[in-house]
Amino acid sequence: QVQLMESGGGSVQPGGSLRLSCVASPRDFPVYRMGWYRQAPDKQRELVATINYDGSTNYGDSVKGRFIISRDNAKNTMTLQMNSLEAEDTAVYYCNGHWVSANRPYDAWGQGTQVIVSS
Length: 119
Description:
The protein is an all-beta fold and 119 residues long. 0% of the residues lie in helices and 56% in strands.
């Protein structure tokens, strides 16, 4: 069973930056795709960005050009660099891990970390 732990949330003014990190354990478990999703109050959870084991990435339209996702496969960690933050980025951010085992898909989620963008 994969466990995910996020860190790095907090409060920042509009235009500022934050970096979120996610650690997957056990460290030597190859999680095929890792990603970030977010959920704002009274809204559905939405894709922020994902990154596959080979480094290929996918971004939600609202964060393209502002956020950068990366991962370190050796450490089983993932980072989201968030720049030019806007009030609309305020949400709880969740780390997600996705993999396939014995032809079955699996997903794991972190507990979430709060990001508040406000002046």
